[in-house]
Amino acid sequence: MGLAWIFLTGCTILQELQESNLKRQQETRVRMKERYVTFEAPDDTGVNVSGDGLEIDSVHYKLSFGPDLHQHPDYDTPTERQQIGHGSLVFMESLYQFLYRIFGFEPKHKIHVILHDIYRGTKLMATTTIHAQNRMQNGQIIKVIQGIEMNFPLNMFGERPVRAHELAHAFTNIYLLPAWFSEGIAVWVEVEYAKGKDHRSVDLNEIKLTLDGLNAAQEWSGDLDAGADALTQWRYNYCYTIVAEIKDRFGEDFYPKFFKLMEEDKLYQRLPGNMPTSFLVYYLSQAAGEDLVPFFQSLKFKIQKLSRDEILKAIQQANQTLRRQKRNDESEE
């Protein structure tokens, strides 16, 4: 009877701790949403506007107007550009602080925001590009981030969820994440914190498979230049659901912990291309404190469990192949 009472008491305490933790997470999320909606301007935005209004700088941004806006009736005078540019960067600085609180880190480079009337032939596409260069350092190829650029058509820049989505890319894509995870993180910020309505969670067990029987989300390039296909919306929703599910399992501090692990390790700098999903799951498992390979395998992802030494060896082999290809290309010239 005494053992039974101890067991029941332990279960009750555990349940209370779980409920308390869940309540704390929900309260944190509510506070974050309230901060976003009420738009708290930071104390020091450091916004500086040029005399012609074509270049506007702040602490974390540089904003400029594309050539097609120079003759736009709302942007064809210095005063109009100065006023609109100043207000835009005050908001973007607030959004920057908002993302910093979510992820626990920030990019090391100032972000260049370029506004257009029409971008890449459409008013319905915004992009974030990480500019990087490979350099040799101590016999190793190291990827060095040189800049971050965000391009918006005006009508999309006016939508807060879109700006939150793209800024999430600016924060996280420096780690060369797989496209499916990069988009999942960005939609997670867009939906859960910026209250975007374009995406929703889905049933993780309702999987779309490739002809090889693998999860179609994993092979997504994320590149929409060629246009969306029939699976695009499902991929956005599914990848977001995975990101949200992991955070719900392991708490509000999971993703700050995850990105901190990658930043401390710095193996991402040695990658010849985007991070393979097996590498990603290694860091996710480290942050979770448990092996997440079975979880992803249950979702039909093609991955394997790797140690850090195995990841390092794979990176070295890939870079050796890259160096050989470069030498062959140079000899053919």
Distance between the termini: 84 Å
Strands, count = 6
Radius of gyration: 23 Å
Encode the helix/strand succession as letters.
Answer: HEEEHEEEHHHHHHHH
Shape: globular
Biggest sheet strand line-up:
1-2-3-4-6-5
Please give a quick description of this structure.
This protein has 10 helices and 6 strands; from the N terminus they run αβββαβββαααααααα.
Structure explained in plain terms:
This protein has helices spanning 2-38, 78-103, 154-157, 160-172, 179-193, 232-250, 254-265, 277-288, 293-298, 308-332; strands at residues 48-49, 55-57, 61-65, 111-116, 127-137, 140-153. By secondary structure, it is α/β, with parallel strands linked by helices. It folds into 3 domains: 1-38; 42-175; 176-333, no CATH class. The chain has a 6-stranded mixed β-sheet with strand order 1-2-3-4-6-5. A hairpin with a 3-residue loop joins strand 2 and strand 3. Helix 5 (179-193) packs across helix 6 (232-250) and helix 7 crosses helix 8. The protein is globular, with a radius of gyration of 23 Å.
Topology record:
Elements: H1 2-38, E1 48-49, E2 55-57, E3 61-65, H2 78-103, E4 111-116, E5 127-137, E6 140-153, H3 154-157, H4 160-172, H5 179-193, H6 232-250, H7 254-265, H8 277-288, H9 293-298, H10 308-332
Parallel strand pairs: 3-4, 4-6
Antiparallel strand pairs: 1-2, 2-3, 5-6
Helix pairs in contact: 2-4, 4-5, 5-6, 7-8
List its salient traits.
about 325 residues; alpha/beta; 3 domains; six-stranded mixed sheet; 6 strands; disordered N terminus
